[in-house]
Write a structure and sequence with these properties.
Order of helices and strands: EEEHEEEHEEEEHHEHEH
Low-confidence stretches: none
Protein name: Alcohol dehydrogenase
Oligomer: single chain
GO molecular function, one term: zinc ion binding
Organism: Thermomicrobium roseum
Radius of gyration: 18 Å
CATH class of the largest domain: Alpha Beta
Keywords: Metal-binding, NAD, Oxidoreductase, Zinc
Strand content: 25-35%
Distance between the termini: 44 Å
Number of strands: 12
Domain Alcohol dehydrogenase-like N-terminal: 27-155
Length: 228
């Protein structure tokens, strides 16, 4: 099938919107119609070359959409389900997964190559060049094929344009406060920088019971948003 996607052909700071060929989902994979995706600074790192990657590649790892089709063996979701796409599909078998740290799963090492778990690609240009999908999901596309392990079913009543942020900046920020920072009730917390992650760190500290959260930034509207 065909899909339009924002493609990076190198660290040029320029995305090219192109029509690509997208393969059908193989065993253990899911075809998703993307509805919303966030733009994370990690995606921009590929555009600037600050983070090495295999090009061409379709970035995007904060995605939400609706299942169109499932490959053989997939039972967790079915067509019509509303889903999030996560950027490191945990294997559940490596040392990190087995010790409760799936975010460090060994599969993450191949995130910037853009191939699927079997080492092959699902996207191609019109002339047959293979195109990678960042983190095996490549959300800057109308449609994407991803591992079932990267798909999380959600309540259909949740707006997808908000739900997509739960794929990255929400758990990163909340986790920074609640897990890494181990904020406890009554503590005073300072958060420096109010981007997507920082704003959610503010919320994470508040949810953890901090008596005061000090938000630090040089952008006035971000400070106003943090107070909300």
């Amino acid at each position: 099938m065909k899909t339009r996607a924002a493609v990076l052909h190198g660290p040029t700071k320029t995305f090219s919107v192109e029509e690509l060929e997208l393969d059908e989902p193989k065993a253990g994979e899911v075809l998703v119609k993307m509805v919303a995706t966030g733009i994370c600074h990690s995606d921009w790192h590929f555009a600037t070359g600050d983070h090495p990657a295999r090009y061409p590649i379709v970035p995007g790892h904060e995605g939400a959409g609706i299942v169109e089709k499932v490959g053989p063996g997939v039972t967790e979701v079915q067509p019509g389900d509303h889903v999030l796409l996560t950027f490191i599909p945990p294997c559940g078998k490596c040392r990190w997964c087995l010790t409760g740290l799936p975010v460090l799963c060994d599969r993450g090492a191949g995130a910037t190559i853009g191939a699927q778990l079997d080492g092959t690609f699902r996207l191609r240009t019109k002339d047959g060049q293979e195109v990678g999908q960042f983190a095996m999901i490549g959300c800057f596309s109308e449609y994407t094929v991803a591992p079932a392990d990267a798909i999380v079913k959600i309540d259909p009543d949740i707006p997808l344009d908000r739900a997509c942020l739960v794929s990255c900046c929400v758990p990163t920020g909340v986790g920074a406060a609640a897990k890494r920072g181990e904020v406890r009730a009554g503590e005073v917390v300072a958060v420096f920088g109010l981007g997507g992650v920082g704003m959610n760190a503010v919320q994470g500290a508040a949810l953890a019971g901090a008596s005061k959260v000090i938000a630090v930034d040089i952008v006035p509207w971000k400070l106003e948003a943090a107070q909300e």
